[in-house]
From TrEMBL:
Pfam families: HTH_20. It comes from the Bacteria. It comes from Micromonospora fiedleri. This is Helix-turn-helix domain-containing protein. InterPro entries: WH-like_DNA-bd_sf, WH_DNA-bd_sf.
Length: 195
């Protein structure tokens, strides 16, 4: 069955599988079973096969274990991305569903962190916060470009001694209602206050 990229990636288990490969990792289905222990093996194998058949996961090796073939996979990051045209064509309801799946994945990641003995956010260098800033569209594009360049620099370091695989999640939204012309609705002299 052919699935468009958005539909393919918005399945909660498939999204978790894709997230497990982030950071240039090579994993077998046995590795995935260890990381996603709460997912039934049959479901996991079926969803890995779906991602592989759509080119999101590619087989990079195999070995025989007790008569069975065990494949190693890597993520094709380009195939795991939803293109701009698809995003523009999504309905508000599809965006809500996509965002809900995304947020549910973040909540599950945080639950796993806490359940595995986490909770000392300072010790573990864990954080979540929200900030706001005022920028033009051009300044925002520059900010995003610089953030991507900085992230790419650190992502290129790869695994190594004392390096912990970390998830870096971003959400970028206009803080004020968006007008029909795509501009924010706040006046330029808007101020904020805290209580």
């Amino acid at each position: 069955m052919a699935l468009d990229t958005a539909e393919l990636l918005l399945h909660p288990v498939r999204m978790r599988i894709v997230q497990a490969f982030l950071g240039g990792r090579t994993l077998t289905t046995a590795d995935l079973r260890a990381e996603l222990a709460d997912v039934a093996p049959a479901t996991l194998y079926r969803q890995v096969a779906t991602l592989a058949s759509h080119g999101v996961l590619r087989s990079v090796g195999e070995r025989r274990i007790r008569g069975a073939i065990e494949r190693s996979y890597q993520l094709d990051e380009a195939a795991a991305a939803v293109d701009a045209d698809t995003i523009r064509g999504m309905t508000p309801e599809q965006h809500r569903r996509a965002f809900l799946t995304f947020v549910a994945g973040m909540l599950a990641d945080f639950d796993r962190y806490l359940d595995s003995g986490g909770g000392d956010l300072a010790r573990d260098l864990v954080g979540y916060r929200q900030n706001a800033f005022y920028v033009t569209d051009a300044e925002l594009v520059e900010f995003i470009t610089r953030m991507r360049e900085l992230f790419a620099e650190y992502a290129a370091l790869g695994p190594g001694p004392d390096r912990v695989r970390r998830l870096f999640t971003t959400v970028l939204l206009p803080a004020d209602p968006v007008q029909a012309d795509g501009t924010g609705g706040a006046p330029s002299d808007a101020t904020s206050s805290t209580s």
